[in-house]
UniProtKB/TrEMBL annotation:
Belongs to the polypeptide deformylase family. The gene is def. The keyword Magnesium does not apply. This is Peptide deformylase. Pfam families: Pep_deformylase (PF01327). Binds 1 Fe(2+) ion. CDD domains: Pep_deformylase (cd00487). Removes the formyl group from the N-terminal Met of newly synthesized proteins. Requires at least a dipeptide for an efficient rate of reaction. N-terminal L-methionine is a prerequisite for activity but the enzyme has broad specificity at other positions. SUPFAM superfamilies: Peptide deformylase. Keywords: Hydrolase, Iron, Metal-binding, Protein biosynthesis. InterPro entries: Peptide_deformylase, Peptide_deformylase_sf.
Length: 196
């Protein structure tokens, strides 16, 4: 089932997510709904707060990035095969010189801005079977994980922009929260006027 994606301005996007346990109700259904919702919106990641749940769960599937011709064949194949569920994730370490990448977000349609992040991360998480892993990720995969991880910490990529950039996009963000935007997937807008 495709779920509506929560738009910028909704308080749930500002909440720090809570850990979950194996007996979280209907968890398999939740995961399959989240994957369906992400693919329907052509996203490479989706975090639970974006469908209104302040819990520490997010998905990543970097396959759409693999089409980039600037990447080596090896990089393309790595991105194509990377599909993962992260539960109760903690980033233990971030290393290297921060690099810029133009990020977007399904909760903030039509805005893309350069965000600086470190290229190499160590993450501790549970997979969909609640098995624990500690893994190192780099490059674009690390980038997507960092973006989604921020969601479960209540942080959006627009929070990381300079105050000048923030001022420049303020009007656009207000419009998004009011639903004054055309978007081709289902969304829920916090400040939309009720239709009479
Ligand atoms: Zn996002």
């Amino acid at each position: 089932m495709i779920l509506p994606i929560v738009a910028y301005g909704d308080p749930v996007l500002k909440k720090q997510g809570t850990d979950i346990t194996k007996d979280y109700p209907n968890f398999d259904t939740l995961l399959s709904n989240m994957f369906e919702t992400m693919y329907n919106a052509c996203g490479v990641g989706l975090a639970a707060p974006q469908i209104g749940l302040p819990i520490r769960v997010f998905l990543v599937d970097t396959a759409p990035f693999s089409e980039d011709d600037d990447l080596s064949q090896e990089e393309q194949e790595t991105l194509r095969g990377f599909k993962r569920v992260f539960i109760n994730a903690r980033i233990l370490k971030e290393e290297g010189d921060a690099w810029a990448f133009s990020e977007g977000c399904l909760s903030i349609p039509d805005i893309r801005e350069d965000v600086f992040r470190k290229p190499k991360i160590t993450v501790e998480y549970l997979d969909e079977n609640f098995n624990k892993h500690t893994e190192v990720f780099e490059g674009l995969i690390a980038r997507v994980i960092q973006h989604e991880y921020d969601h479960i910490e209540g942080i959006l990529f627009t929070d990381k922009l300079s105050s000048l950039k923030k001022r420049l996009i303020k009007g656009k963000l207000t419009n998004i929260s009011k639903g004054n935007i055309s978007v081709d997937y289902k969304m829920r807008f916090p400040n939309q006027k009720k239709k009479r």
